[in-house]
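Please decode residue identities from the backbone states below.
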């Protein structure tokens, strides 16, 4: 009898141990990573002039300060570096061939960004030498940079960022480079269906999640073009998890697109502008956006959850309303923390037919972004 009792007790203990181990394993396998993404970091001369110091250096840090805590709170923080840093040995410049001071890279990293995209229409503004200089610059800052490459080997290696046990692949494509030709196919990724499908298939084998940076669309348009929707569906059909849209310089809608296998893909058609000194346009161009989401990995699979939009304001003031080069005090603010007293000073207020106000920016946000993505701090 004692023998049976002992055997039964051992079975119970073994069951409890196995159950405890299994629960612990499941808990261990359940992983979470947070992501934030913003739009076009496009440094016009009026911006780098505002950042210039008496000793000839540049300091952009105060311009990012109002959103710094928000950016640093995410595990992965993405930004589209639209104006290239082609080398300080060349003259700094703006539209149409940008060259931004290299100091910007340090300030971007210090603000919390750790995933930088370079595939955009200005990538070749300073030629292949400028493209390669920027690659080396981000490497010196030990920050993941992708979208442009120095060799076919680099281009064919799928960029993977591993955070908290989750492997995130980052693919980047642009519609073009303002008529400037790449010297080799590997320098930058253009939209090409065969290449895109091949990249995604490869990335799927190497990662848990695929994010695509898509430089597409029409400038100044608040609605996605037919081509944007075409490629959004292609990305969804091929199994991409998230698409981050850039280039229109205004915000566009965000939605879930269902792929042919039933998978849902989050598509933010345009996050609009981030820090910039765009002279043309109106109040819509000073309203940028960011998207937050969580990547959850469990024994049941990987999912994109808790998607939240946040509108941003690119603030600046002006000394002489007749001279756009006299703008100063550039900074990016979350719209829900943007004070009316600053809005009243914004340079856009002095434009003819301007409808610049916090209330108008809030209304525009609601008219573009679906309410499922909005929270009390979205705008």
């Amino acid at each position: 009898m004692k023998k049976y009792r002992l055997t039964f007790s051992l079975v119970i203990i073994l069951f409890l141990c196995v159950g405890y181990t299994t629960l612990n394993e499941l808990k261990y396998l359940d992983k979470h990573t947070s992501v934030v993404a913003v739009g076009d970091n496009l440094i016009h001369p009026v911006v780098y002039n505002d950042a210039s110091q008496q000793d000839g250096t540049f300091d952009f840090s105060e311009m990012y300060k109002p959103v710094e805590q928000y950016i640093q709170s995410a595990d992965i923080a993405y930004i589209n570096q639209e104006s290239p840093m082609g080398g300080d040995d060349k003259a700094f410049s703006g539209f149409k061939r940008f060259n931004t001071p290299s100091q910007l890279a340090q300030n971007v990293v210090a603000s919390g960004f750790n995933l930088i995209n370079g595939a955009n229409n200005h990538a070749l503004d300073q030629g292949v030498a400028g493209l390669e200089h920027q690659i080396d610059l981000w490497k010196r800052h030990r920050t993941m940079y992708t979208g442009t490459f120095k060799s076919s080997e680099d281009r064919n290696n799928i960029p993977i960022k591993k955070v908290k046990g989750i492997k995130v692949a980052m693919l980047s494509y642009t519609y073009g480079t303002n008529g400037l030709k790449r010297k080799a196919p590997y320098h930058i990724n253009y939209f090409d269906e065969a290449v895109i499908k091949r990249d995604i298939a490869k990335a799927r084998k190497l990662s848990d999640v695929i994010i695509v940076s898509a430089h597409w669309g029409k400038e100044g348009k608040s609605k996605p073009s037919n081509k944007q929707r075409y490629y959004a569906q292609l990305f969804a059909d091929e199994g991409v998890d998230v698409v981050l849209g850039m280039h229109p310089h205004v915000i566009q809608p965000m939605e879930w697109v269902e792929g042919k296998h039933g998978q849902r893909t989050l598509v933010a058609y345009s996050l609009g502008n981030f820090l910039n000194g765009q002279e043309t346009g109106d109040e819509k161009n000073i309203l940028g956006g960011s998207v937050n989401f969580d990547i959850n990995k469990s024994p049941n699979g990987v999912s994109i959850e808790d998607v939240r939009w946040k509108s941003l304001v690119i603030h600046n003031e002006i000394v002489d309303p007749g001279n756009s080069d006299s703008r100063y005090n550039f900074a990016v603010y979350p719209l829900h923390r943007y004070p009316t007293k600053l809005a009243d000073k914004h340079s856009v207020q002095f434009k003819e037919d301007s409808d610049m106000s916090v209330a108008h920016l809030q209304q525009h946000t609601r008219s573009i972004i679906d309410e499922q993505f909005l929270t009390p701090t979205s705008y």
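Observation: The longest helix spans residues 2-29.
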